[in-house]
Amino acid sequence: MKTTVDTFINATGKENELQAVITAAQSKLNSLSASKSAYLSNASGWFTHASTYRNLSHEDWKDRNKKEENEYNALCNKSQCRGQGKSGRKTRFDRRYDEWMKGLNKGNDYNRRAADITNTAIPAQESVLENAKQALKDYQKTINGKLAAGHSLESATESAQLEIQQQEEAIVNAQTVADAQAEAIILKPKQDMTKLAIIGGVAIVGLIAFLRFRK
Fold first, then answer.
1. Half-sphere exposure (CA, 13 Å, Cβ side) for 160?
2. Which of 52, 110, 178, 207 could pair with 43 in a Cys bridge, judged by C-beta atoms 3.0 to 4.6 Å apart?
3. What is the pLDDT of residues 6-40, one digit of tens each?
4. Distance from C-alpha of 203 to C-alpha of 215, rounded to nearest angstrom
């Protein structure tokens, strides 16, 4: 039979494991929030760039086409106006027009990525964090309950580890999904997020259902 010191170390070791999961999840959540802020800042910068070149390209377009800026914006904001600069300025117009389109596309892309982080990656990571915290509470509660009932620390620790085993497995699976979603947004922004969101939603719903109905 193990000594009290040995079993206490084992109990503390499991708590340390769970706390490490909590710390890592919080760190990932902080990183996602920082990425979201960076994407929004980048989007703002590119929209400013777009606005500058929209105005400049309009100067090379308006005299020939006789349209004011609001009409120009409505007609030409979907890459349909290349080659329409006034005589002698077509090359410069196309260059300026392309910069306007580039600014719009880049700004929209960064906004989409920020939205994906807000709507998909952050909720997934928050779920991992909250459920890891719950697992730690359940572990500590089980140990305390068993000790109060007269069990040895070794027996209490063993019971607590069995109690949270399925929770730990569910948390690991949810973290895998959350990591995949974050990677898709940050490293592969053009990947289809709908499929990932569905997969992540199923994993999280399964975890919540398990936690709610576990004995």
1. 29
2. 110
3. 444 456 688 999 999 999 999 999 999 999 999 99
4. 20
CA distance 17 to 90: 65
pTM above 0.85, yes or no: no
Could you report the per-residue pLDDT of 36-89, keeping only the tens digit for each? 999 999 999 999 999 999 999 998 888 777 778 888 888 888 878 888 887 777
Residue 179 Rama label (left phi>0; alpha psi -120 to 50; beta): alpha
In 3D space, the residue among 158, 111, 117, 126 whose CA is nearest the CA of residue 139 turns out to be: 158
Would you state the structure tokens that stand for residue 3, as one six-digit string? 């000594």
